[in-house]
Amino acid sequence: MIKAIFLDIDGTMVSFNTHRIPENTKQVLREAGRRGVKIFVATGRHRSDINNLDDLEFDGYITLNGGYCFVGDEVIFKKHIPREDVEAFVRYGEEVEPVPCFFVEADRVSADMEDEYMISMMKLVKFEPRPVVPAREFINREVFQLTAFFPPEREAEIMKHLPGCAATRWYPTFADIVARGIDKSAGLEKAGAYFGFGTGEMMAIGDGGNDISMIKYAGVGVAMGNAGEEVKRAADYVTTSVDDDGIGNALRHFGVV
């Protein structure tokens, strides 16, 4: 029996075409909640960037790809990037090649610089402008995520300087870099321990590369119809797209509603 559903935002609950959550998705999630199923956000976004879910209520939030998890005002888990890795990333940008990046702290998100890819991404997901802060200022701060704008072919070169970190992508122009061992499945584990439900009682639904860990971890893993092929291969079930009632079709298929 499914007791908890964990949902990615972009491309899962929210359409890249309309930038909103479809009404049928809101209705089916409310119905699941009325039936006693707990509903969670599981996203790479910072809590301040969750700006497109309208008036839906959630039982908890897995944010920053599992690096910062909370229920109401209670933080149930957090893990920041090792300080030496933040310093190595900053040094790479100074000595090798600049890397436009969002430095994500618990209470704010700042940018070290902007480029066309960062600006395009911010328009795509309707992020508010970031304050621009010199990268070196973050070396002695708790940084939970580096959202760094570089192409996939540069990833191996950059990541070899960050042994305490791992990178994942949900859009091709940037990587979300978090502490090694952190991913969305870690957030599911913490939420399950907090609420007292097991892996087999969880459903995870996503569309991006950063959703694969939770899709594999949950008892029922669902890929959206608009997901990439690697995500679909990891899933137990492939539903329709976000614009074609994908969440509703998945929940009805497994008898959640």
Based on the model shown, name its key terms.
257 residues, 13 strands, 8 helices, alpha/beta, eight-stranded mixed sheet
What does this entry show, briefly?
The protein is α/β, with parallel strands linked by helices and 257 residues long. Helix content is 28%, strand content 22%.
Describe the fold and architecture.
The chain is an alpha/beta fold and 257 residues long. It is 28% helix and 22% strand. It has eight helices and 13 strands. The chain has helices at residues 23-34, 83-95, 116-124, 155-159, 184-195, 212-217, 229-234, 246-253, and strands spanning 4-7, 38-42, 60-63, 68-71, 74-78, 101-104, 109-111, 145-148, 165-171, 174-179, 202-206, 220-223, 237-238. The chain has an eight-stranded mixed sheet. The protein has a five-stranded antiparallel sheet with strand order 7-6-8-10-9, with no helix packed on it. Strand 1, helix 1 (23-34) and strand 2 form a beta-alpha-beta unit.
Distance between the termini: 12 Å
Largest sheet: 8 strands, mixed
| Rg result | 18 Å
What is the subunit arrangement here? single chain
The secondary-structure element order is EHEEEEHEEHEHEEHEHEHEH
Overall number of strands: 13
